[in-house]
Every structure is written in C-alpha cells, then in structure tokens.
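call fold(seq) -> tokens
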Amino acid sequence: MHWLIENANIAFILCGSSARKLKRGAANLLGGRAWRYHFFPLVSPELPELNLLRIFNHGLLPSHYLQEEQIKKSLNSYLEDYLKEEIQAEGLVRNLPAFARFLDVAGLCNTEMINFNNIARDCGIDAKTTQTYFDILIDTLLAYFIYPYTKKVKRDLVTVRPKFYLFDTGVANRLAKWECEALAGPQAGKSFEHFILLELMAYKKLHDQDWDIHYWRTRNGHEVDFILGDGKIALEVKLGEQIDKRDLKGLAAFLEEHPQAQAYLICQAPRPRLMRIDEHEIEVLPYAEFLTRLWDNKIFKL
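ret:
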C-alpha cells in the first residue's frame, strides 16, 4: 500500500478495531501521508429526532439505538463480549475478575470526579492498578477524562481530580444498572450532561479543532459543567424546563473572573431567552437549539 500510494496515486481506507494498538504500537502513518480519523457513536445531526430517553437507555451505537426490543440483552452482551473479554484477549489486563469489579464501579463513577484511592478500596486493588485500568479505557477510546480549568485562578479551585465519562450513554447506564424511565431525577440529569459532552467531543474531533474541554469547580460549591477553549465559552447543563437564578450561580461566578466569556445554560426550556444575574448576561437555550447551533458552527465560528 505504501508503494502504491507513493507511485500510483491510489487512496486506501484502512480500519483498525484496536485503538490502543494503533495508538501505542507505532502504527505507520506514512510520514503524514496517511490521516487518522476517529469513528463516534451517532450524533444529533444523524438522528431523525432527539428522543432523550432512547438516547439515555439505548445509547448511540447504531445497532443499539435502532434496536426496538431486548436492548438490555444487547448491551449486556456488549459489556461481556467486548469491554471484558476483548480487552483481556488483547493482553491489556491479566486479572479479569479485578477488572470486572473495576468496570462495575466505573459505571457508577460516570460524570463524577475521580478519586483513585477510593475506587481502589472499593475494587480491592491498589491505586496504581486503578489508574492503569482507567488509562486502558481512555487508550481504547472507551472513555474520556475532563480536567479542571485552572487558568486565571482567583478562587479556591478544585485543580487535580478529573471527571470521568464513558464513550456512550447506553453503555454507561447499563454498566451502572440504571434505567431512565422519565426525564427527571439525578440519573437522568447525569445522562443529559453525558450526552452533551459526547456531542462536544464528536464535534471537536470531526472538525479537527484543537481547543480543550474542561470543567470548573470551586471548593465552596460553584461549578460549571464545561469550559471550552481558553475560557471563551462556559456551558452549564440542566435537565429541567424551569430555570431560575439559582441555576445560574456557577456561570455568574465564572463570569466574574472571565467577563469576556460567552455563557450558555442548556436545558429543556421551550424557547431561548436571555437572563441576567449580578450584571452578567447568560443565554438559556433549549438543548435542540444549542445542538443545532453547535453543528451549524454558530457556537464556535469555524
């Protein structure tokens, strides 16, 4: 193939299922003449409708999203046959029972800040092994770490602990043995935040953007779910329809230190509107409107 590319101007599409081997195994990208692309689960522009409960419970892997019956069995099979057996088959872990216990705990940690020592204690393994297991999930593109935003520090910030997100909402909820029956409650709220993060990650990668995604949290409780770029955009995600000023406090605290940032609150509100708090202007957007603007390049101007 290398010879044909060099001498016959022929193009190839090469696929590899082992992301870790491609990443760590010095895959030959032909001195930049071969480009690397990542596949993602379905994203909102590919969906005929945004059915949040289906997204939360089925996930966005195409076969799972389209499946009408026995979705739990399909997700359970995926967890058993890939997340556990295939990872072991590639020689990435030696102690499969310990890794299985780790995965159960990791499902409960989805969207949460990670304390490696606490998770190690829950799994009955040491903290170094726990961190290695997280690295395996990230290297195989099965999960992401989102790190705290710490630039222009004026407050007492959380600066060390990453937040953990699996690559798919359905896989995450099945791993945690949760099912969202209504668009209400803590688990549905976490799934909503998870879904928005996955849209941001896919948009970023598919548009070859190099801005980072962080979260922002102070030790006295102010928090913003996602900070994009160098503090240019702040996003807070709330599942509810009714938004009041209490929901804006985290964004307002961030804007005190970053007054040039554009702040959005993403929710189920019926229509967009502007809200003001402490002299700061925040745009409240229905999630469908936000996603349309995102993929139309109106959040980030490309």
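The chain has a mean pLDDT of 88.
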